[in-house]
Amino acid sequence: MVFSSYVFIFVFMPLVLLGFYLLPRLISSGSRLRTAQNLLLIAASLIFYGYYNVYYLFIIIASILVNYLLALAMQCFDLSRPALAKTCFILGILFNVFLIGYFKYYDFFIENVNFIFRSSFALKHLLLPLGISFFTFQQLSFLVSVYKKDEKVEGFISYCIFVLFFPQLVAGPIVLYSEMIPQFNDQSRSRFNADNMASGLYMFCIGLFKKAVIADTLALFVDNGFAQSSLGMAAAWSTSVSYALQIYFDFSGYSDMAIGLGRMFNIDIPYNFLSPYKSESFGELWRRWHITLGRALSTYIYIPLGGSRKGAVRTFINTFLTFFISGLWHGAAWTFVLWGTIQGLFIAMERPLRKQLARIPRTLRVFTTFVIFVLLATIFRAENFTQVGTVFSGLVDFGNFNISQISALVLDNSFDFPTAVDIVYLFSLLAALLFVVFRCKNSKEMLESFSCNGKTLAFTVFLFCFSVLHLSRESIFIYFNF
Amino acid sequence: MKKNLSSAQWLRRFLALALAVLAVLAVLVYIIDPYYNYRAYDHRYKLDKIFSVPGVVKNYDYDAIVIGSSMTQNFDMDSFREQLGQNPIKATLGGITGKEISALFNLAQGSGHAQTYYICLDNSTLAAGSTEQRFPEYLMDFNMFNDYRYFWGYEAWMRFIPLNLALVAADKLGIELPERFNEARSIDMMGEWAYLYEFNADRVLRVYSESDNGAAVNVDATQAYGDPEANCDAFLESMDLSRGNIVFFFPPYSSLLWYDMEQDGSLDSTLALKRYFLEKVSGYDNVKVFDFQGAEFTSDLDNYMDMSHYSPEINDFMVSCFASGEYLASDESMAETEEQIRANIQVLLSRYPEIETLK
Question: What is the ipTM of this complex?
Answer without folding.
Answer: 0.88
